[in-house]
Structure formats: C-alpha cells, structure tokens
UniProtKB/TrEMBL annotation:
<dbReference type="InterPro" id="IPR004089">
    <property type="entry name" value="MCPsignal_dom"/>
</dbReference>
<feature type="domain" description="Methyl-accepting transducer">
    <location>
        <begin position="318"/>
        <end position="575"/>
    </location>
</feature>
<dbReference type="GO" id="GO:0020037">
    <property type="term" value="F:heme binding"/>
</dbReference>
<keyword id="KW-0807">Transducer</keyword>
<dbReference type="InterPro" id="IPR024096">
    <property type="entry name" value="NO_sig/Golgi_transp_ligand-bd"/>
</dbReference>
<feature type="transmembrane region" description="Helical">
    <location>
        <begin position="198"/>
        <end position="221"/>
    </location>
</feature>
<dbReference type="Pfam" id="PF00015">
    <property type="entry name" value="MCPsignal"/>
</dbReference>
<feature type="coiled-coil region">
    <location>
        <begin position="151"/>
        <end position="178"/>
    </location>
</feature>
<feature type="transmembrane region" description="Helical">
    <location>
        <begin position="227"/>
        <end position="244"/>
    </location>
</feature>
<dbReference type="Pfam" id="PF07700">
    <property type="entry name" value="HNOB"/>
</dbReference>
<dbReference type="GO" id="GO:0016020">
    <property type="term" value="C:membrane"/>
</dbReference>
<protein>
    <submittedName>
        <fullName>Heme NO-binding domain-containing protein</fullName>
    </submittedName>
</protein>
<keyword id="KW-0472">Membrane</keyword>
<keyword id="KW-0812">Transmembrane</keyword>
<dbReference type="InterPro" id="IPR038158">
    <property type="entry name" value="H-NOX_domain_sf"/>
</dbReference>
<dbReference type="GO" id="GO:0007165">
    <property type="term" value="P:signal transduction"/>
</dbReference>
<keyword id="KW-0175">Coiled coil</keyword>
Amino acid sequence: MKGTVVSTWIKTCRKQYSENIINEALENLGWKANQTFSPLEDVEDTRVFKLFSTIASKVNVSEDKLWKSIGKDNIRTFQQDYPGFFHHDNLYHFLKSMDDVHSVVMKRIKGAKPPKLQFKAISRREVIFTYNSHRGMFDYFMGLVEGAAEYFNEQIEIKQLEKNENQLKLKLTFQEDIQYKKSYIMNKILSFGFIKDVHLKISILTAILSGLFLQLVLVFFNVRDSHILTTVSIIAISLFSVYLSSKILYRPYKEIIKEVKNFSNKDYTVLTRIETKDQFEEIFNEINTYKTNIRRDFVGFKGLVDEMNTFTNSISKFAEKMGNTSDEISDVVEQLATAAVSQAEETEHSIYTLNDNVDQINNIAGEEQNNKTELEGSVDQIDNSFKEVESTATEINMLLDRFKQVQDNGLRLKSKAEQITEIVSIVSAISGQTNLLALNASIEAARAGEAGKGFAVVADEVRNLSEETNDAVEKIKNNLSEFVSEIEKLVEDVASQYNVLVKENSSLGQAVEASSVANVNINTVADKMIDTSKRLENEANSMSKVFQNIESLAAIAEENSASAEEVSANVTDYTVHIKGITDSISTFKEMTLDFKDEISQYRI
C-alpha cells in the first residue's frame, strides 16, 4: 500500500495513543521511531498489518476496534487535506462519489490500488453499498462510513448483507429520500411492450382519441348524411386529439426542462429517473449519464484544486524563504564586497608590517644563536651542581648511619645504668640487713654482760659501717638516677635529631630525584631550544619567500574586490527577480482560490 495512507494511519494513532507506544511498535518492525513514508512509496502490506497488530496489543484493544477508530478519525484528516471531496449536500452524495475519488487517486498515483466501491439505489431511501478489497480491511471501512455519517450529521441504518474474504455488502437506509423516480403511465401503456417511438405513440393515441370523439359526435348529433358536418367534426376532433395526445405524451418534457435548468443553476446533486419506454426515457438516461460523468470530473477538479492550493501554499512559503534568503545573500555579498576592498587595503598594509616582522625575526634568529652557546654552558653548570647535590645526599646518608649508632649506644648505656641502679638497690638492702644484724648483736652482747662487751664494740662498728654504707648507696643511687635521666634526655635528643635528619634526608632525596628529572627535562628543553633556534632561522628564510607571495596576493585581492562589487550588483538583480516570482506566485494563489470558489458553486 502507498506511503501516504500509512502515514495518515500512523498520524491518527499518535493522536489517540502514547508517542512512546507508537515509536516502540515502529522500532520492533525495523523502522525508525520518526520514520516518514513518502506518498509514492510502496509499503509491504504484511509489515503494515503487523505494525497495527503490535499497536493494538500494546494499547490493549482488539484489532477491529483499532482499525474502526482509525477509520472514523481519518474522515476528519481527509477533510482537512481534501476539503473539495466533502462539498456535498448530504451523506448519500458523498458516499456515491467515493468510487470517483478512488478513480482520481488511481490516475494521480501510479501503482495505487484502492478498493472498489459500488453504490446502487434500491428504493427511495435504501442503497446497496459494496466494498471490494483484496486486503479485506472491513473494520476500517466501517469506521470510515460511521465517521462520514458523523461529519454530515446524519443517522443511517447499516445492515450487513454479505461478507467474504474480499467483499463486504451493506444495505444503508437514509433518513431522507435519496432519489426521485417518476412514472408516466400513458407513455408506458402505449408502448405495448415494444413501441419506443414517441411519434408513433402520438399517432396511435391520436387515432384512438379521434375515433372515440368521432363516434361520440356522430351519436350525439345523430349525423347520417351531412358530409360537411362530418368533415368539420373530423378536422376539429383531429386537432383536439393531436393536441391532447401531445399534451399527455410530452409530460416528461417538463422533467427534462427541469433537469436542464438544474444544469444552468450548477446543480448536479439530484438523480431523477423516469419511465416512459420511449425517447424521453433514453434522453433522461443520457442526461443522468452526463450528470454522472460531470460529477466524476468535478470530483477530480476539486481534488486537483485542493492539491494546487496546497502546492501554491508550499511554493509561496518556499518563495518567501527564498526572498528572505536572497535579501540575506544580498547583504552578505555587499558586506563581502566591502570586506574585499578593506582586505585589499589591509593586505597592502600587512605587506609593510610583514617586511618589518621578517627583519625582526632575522634579528631574533641571530640572538637565538648566541643564546644557544650560553644555554649549553648553563646546562653544563646544572649538571655539575646536580652531581654535587647527589654527593651531599650520599654523605648525609652516611651521617645518618652514624647517628643511628650513637642512638643505639645511648640506649645501651641507659640499660647499663639501670642495671647498676638495681645492684645499688641490692647493696642498700644488704646494708639495711647488716644494720639490723648489728643491732641484734648489740642487744645480745648487753645480755651477755662483761663477756659480750668486746662483741658489742664490734657490733657498733659494724652498725656504723652499715649506716655509712647506706648513706653512700643513697648518694650513688641519686647520682645514677640523675645519670639515667641525662642519658634518657640525650637519647631522646639524638632520636629527635635523627628523625629530623631522616625527614630532611627524605626531602633531599626527593629533591635529588626531582633535580634528576628536571635535569633531564632541562637537557631536553635545551636540545629543543637549540633545534628551535635552527628552525627559526629556516623559518626566517621561508618568511622572506612568503613575503614575495603576499605581494602577489595583494594584487589578487584588488581583483577580488572588483569581482565582489560586480557580484553584489548581480545579486541585487536576482533579489528583484525573486520578489517578482513571489508576487507571481501570490497572484497564482489568488487565481487558484478564485477557481476553487467557482468550482464550489457546482453542487455534485
């Protein structure tokens, strides 16, 4: 099926349901979420049906309800796009013209195969509407019929008569009469089932009427031998019979005149049929055929006018954009011309400036050569300084090792002092025990009397010695305590200085490492600067050649300035022509609208 109708269906679903659901359904079938279908694009039927089956599943409605709702909504969409197809007095005439619309579509769109519609009136208010389609989209068709009834604000009764795989036959009953049929009994009687010539019918009716009236006259006036009266009666009766016969049999002539007047009034809506079994019926059938053809042609005309109107609207917008663009181009070209003139002047000024720059670059290149020698000397000094710093770092590491030894010796000395303190404590305890023993000995000597006097003297000496020993031990203990405190302080100071020295040594190591990296980078930069100096010298030579090329460009800039001014004049003329085209398109649009108004007067 064609892309134009698929796009319309998708647009309808986007209005009725969530955009995300429609996008997901499109992506599930391999299309983009914003997929667009060109009007002449052929879209595979199976993919289209699969798409709307997926949408129905996602929105939780049956497929027949989905297609029916799409059909009802599409009536409004088609009315907006093709309003000319809806210029009818009632629903009957609109539905009757649908097959003509499909014929127009088949002519306009190559390869289009719309369904075939047959519309046959079976009574004043009933028609048989047959829908033939190899796709079998009956629910969509029912939605279109119901949507059309809502648009024309009419109530219709729909009865399904027959349905198979490719055909649906409905009986539609309308509220108002849809056709008019007039039967002329005398014309039908005089045809006798085979006479279709109205002149022969007039002759037959004239003969019958003449005979009847003649017999009545003869009987009424009792005429026997009066030939004059008989002749006059026959002439009068013949004239009257011919007049009356013509009057009777030419009654359909009024309907024909009425139809012709409808043509003059541009009214092709009413379909009237007559039954006379003669030329009048043939004439009326030809008139109806002509009306049908005219309606079909005007359906095409109105569709063409709608397309022309849409086309002129698009062209008008495009021309308006072209006009705005041409104005912008004109402004740009004018600015370009001004810029070209300014560029030529600036180019000439730049030549002098460039010449000075070339001289300065040459001077800088010479200075860079001198700087290169000084830079090489500075790099050598930096290398020597780095080596000295590295040697200092090595010596500091050795000093750290010695500090570590001093710290360890201080800790061992502290340990020894603590051991001596323990020994002194033991001696103090022994002195106390000795003093106690001397006291006990003195007591025992006193008990012994004279025999124990000598022992008492010895005991006193021992006690005195013990007390002196205890005093000496206390002094030693106090001195050792002070010595241990001094050692602890010394160890702490050594440890503190050692930690500071370790930290500083670490910083120095990082500095040495950074200096090493910096030294490498400096050497690299120095090499690059030396190379840059050489390249600068080469570029200075190249700039001299560029200077010569710039002089040539200055001449070209002057030529471009003249060309830009000429282009500016041409663009101005082009802008004037574009505005003329825009005015012509506006005029054509007005003509199209006038033509549309003229066609709208024809009621089909």
